Amino acid sequence: MHDNVKAESFYKDAGDKVKLNWFCYEYANNIYSEIKRSKKLAQYNMRHSTDQIADFSLYFAKRMRKSIYDMQTGKSGSVAISAQYVYEYDPKCIHKQAQALIEAAQSAWGETTFACTVCPCRCLSEPFELTPMFDNLARTGWPT
Known about the structure:
The chain is built from six helices and no strands. By secondary structure, it is an all-alpha fold. The chain has one domain (13-135). Helix 1 (19-37) crosses helix 3 and helix 1 (19-37) packs across helix 5 (95-116). The radius of gyration is 15 Å and the shape is globular.
């Protein structure tokens, strides 16, 4: 994984370094990667800088926190990957582009949750537990 969306964007202090924020950090980076590799979003990639794509990915992943929490607490049966989030971020987004961004977010969701099946960290089942992963990342960076 590459750190295109910075981990520091998911916490203000040590109390925010929880597993749910780590999961959202990983999800945001996967959204970024899916947008960059999407053929349907080739024009979007040409019109937006890497920082703008990272900002959208950050917004979308943070916006998903409530949906993830609602699913985990039984308030809803599943997460909602909604075009509403795209239009909140960019009200002028055309429908075709919004759909392609949602497809990228859905693909990133699948990729992120698939990794959870083999990860011992249990980010989704223990969302508000503190995690040292943010501090470890700050010290060592991603392994290559």
